Amino acid sequence: MNSFYILDTTLRDGEQSAGVSFSKKEKIDIACKLDELGVDVIEAGIPAMGTEEKEVLKEIISLDLNAEILAWNRMKIEDIDQSLDCGFKNIHISAPASDIQLKHKLKKDRGWLLAELTKVINYAIKKGCMVSVGAEDASRADIDFLIQLYKVAQKEGAVRVRYADTIGALDPLATYDNIKKIREAIDLEVDFHGHNDFGMATANALSAFKAGAKYISCTVNGLGERAGNTALEEIVMSLKCIEGCESDFKIKGLKELSKLVEDSSGRRISIDKPVVGDGVFSHESGIHVDGLLKNPSTYEFLSPGDLGRERKFVIGKFSGVSSILHKYKELGISLSEDEANKVLRGIKSYSGNVESVIG
Questions:
Q1: Domain map (residue ranges) of the chain
Q2: CB 311 within 8 A of CB 346
Q3: How far apart are the C-alpha atoms of 186 and 266, rounded to whole Å?
């Protein structure tokens, strides 16, 4: 039984990254891999974008995946019609919630927003759809009005609401306070959608979960507009390892999923990218290696084996005798401690001119 639900929006918000465009095959491959690993909801795209988008979305729906397949829509009946034409039954309606968005983007007021939202929700539900409602720029919206918006969504039959930190303006404490107020005011599941403009998307998502948001919107590798979104691999492992949450998510597939999205998007991840970076289980420090050889938990909270990964010891400037003895043992060579010290002195002398000596 899952105690949290992953709503992946790599195919929608992830693809909105500047310069990123997935091919039809790439979108289908990503959707299948997300489903294989156990993502609960796949926000597959925006039908209103046009014919090519609709064709691939229809094919994703035809795959009959286990995940809920969700279409993102503006608060417009014509958008809902485009989603219906694709065969979607799970509809997300995004409503600009902040006064900044209403005044400067739409040139409308709060009353208009609530009336329009009511109309569009009713239309989708009458067409037999399951509806979720998202509050765009929720983090800058008046909290009382935001709750009013969510209550309208609840009254009209929506099953889930989204709190979107669209510009990444929140910190974890503010996130917790806001989500807690919302959960106390409405009887709907809450989906938190965070952006990473200040590097706090995963921390904010974790705080949102603690406050009662059971659905977490995220993208593989944190792919998304500007600085990106909450990273799927980070929030899944944070919830499982830090919070001790139950989940059937197949975490051994995270590296492969990350690589798929990295290649498809053309956005290269760093070697130290949490959870999936090539170097996150590499160790050079002699103190750390000595501890790890005695008990891996001394310097690893994430176990590489759980993720289908391997630990790697790098020999270089900060290595100790334990590292040398271990590396030579791997090569089938037995050294005395004096011999290891002699080798280490040579390595330290040489390593001042290179990044590492032995990988």
A1: 5-265, 282-352
A2: no
A3: 41
* DSSP code of residue 296: G
Euclidean distance between CA atoms 230 and 236, whole angstroms: 10
d(CA 295, CA 310) in angstroms, rounded, equals: 15
> Is 71 strand, coil or helix?
strand
For residue 75, give every residue at least 6 positions away whose Cβ sits within 8 Å of its Cβ, in sequence order, or none.
Answer: 93, 94, 95, 96, 113, 116, 117, 120
Q: How far apart are CA 136 and CA 329, in angstroms?
A: 57
Q: Are 220 and 189 in contact (CB under 8 A)?
A: no
Give the contacts of 187 (CB within 8 A, at least 6 positions apart): 154
94 pairs with which residues across the strands? Answer: 74, 134
pLDDT of the residue at 109? 97
Listing DSSP states for 266-284 in one string gives --PPPTT-TTTSTTTTEE-
User: Does domain 5-265 correspond to CATH entry 3.20.20.70?
Assistant: yes
- Mean pLDDT per 10-residue run, the chain (359 residues)? 89 98 98 99 98 98 98 99 99 98 96 98 98 98 98 99 98 99 98 99 99 99 98 98 95 99 98 97 94 95 96 91 91 91 86 59
Tokens describing residue 283: 């160790």
Closest CA to 60 of 78, 39, 81: 39
SS3 23: coil
CB 7 within 8 A of CB 218: yes
**Residue 66 CA to its chain's centroid (Å):** 19
> What is the rounded distance in angstroms from the CA atom of residue 322 to the CA atom of residue 343?
12
- Residue 279 neighbours by CB under 8 Å, 6+ apart: 271, 272
Supply the Cα-derived Rg of the chain in whole angstroms: 24
**Dihedral of the CA atoms 155, 157, 162, 163 (nearest 10)?**
0
Cα–Cα distances in angstroms (integers) from residue 172 to residues 15, 175, 205, 313, in the given order: 26, 5, 8, 35
Q: Does residue 190 contact residue 179 with C-beta atoms inside 8 Å? A: yes
